[in-house]
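Lab meeting, action items carried over

1. Structure of the two-component assembly. Owner: GW. Status: complete.
Input record:
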Amino acid sequence: MSRTADQIEKIYEEYFQEITKYLYRRTGNMETAKDLAQDVFMKALHGLSSFKGHSSVKTWLYTIAYHTFVNDYRRKIKWTITNVEEVDYLEQQSFLTPEDHIETQADIQRLWHHINQLKDSYREVLILRDIQELSYEEVAEILNWTLSKVKTTLHRARLELKRMLHCEEFNT
Amino acid sequence: MSCYLIEELLPLYIEGDTSAGTNKIIAEHLQTCESCRQLYQEMKEPITLIQSPDLMPYIDEKEEKRKFEKRYYGKLIYRASIVFGLGYVMMIILYWLK
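Predicted assembly:
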């Protein structure tokens, strides 16, 4: 195997799960997420020689994944309207007791139902920071935003999400 | 300072990114303004649900890696065959021109 292939294999093994999970959280569909993740690593493979190391490999991959998702989303939005009910967030295998599992499933479904209703910039920053647990600096680099824009948008996103969750609790 | 400005600054205030002078103005405003105080409390409150486990379908890493390698090597073979094909055509052309 060539040096590039060796490098990409290492990167692939280290980040494939994480990037696929991120794409799953953005798309709501595992098959799409896996396909997009394959595209991300193919793009990374082609761009590896031009990767100058100004950012970490992780943020570089996230940036490719973010743009891959956005481009795919723009292409698809012309043809379809995503139904938030159709996202397959419920397919996980779990080791919880059945009662706990049902409760957790319902909670998680509720959470994602609301996350999917947030406006795009809110959803993006919330997933990157609170779900993927990236640092503010990493999020800023991936989205090409300033640090204060990341923080401000994140707090507004959290606030809106909390309000949606509270509003739902109040109505039930 | 107006409530609008306070609302704008609250995220950075919570993050500790505002200057000492601004902090003082915001703190004073929060003591006197009920609605901004409520907003501040609301913003500070964590979202407990977000700490719950995620519902993530199983990812068959081996299968995905196999697919990736197939695509990678497929592309290499495709490129090699184009180069080979072009070389072959060139040789035929050169042979004819001779």
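2. GW to write a short summary for the group page. Key points so far: The mean pLDDT of chain A is 84. Chain A touches chain B through 46 residues (CB under 8 Å).
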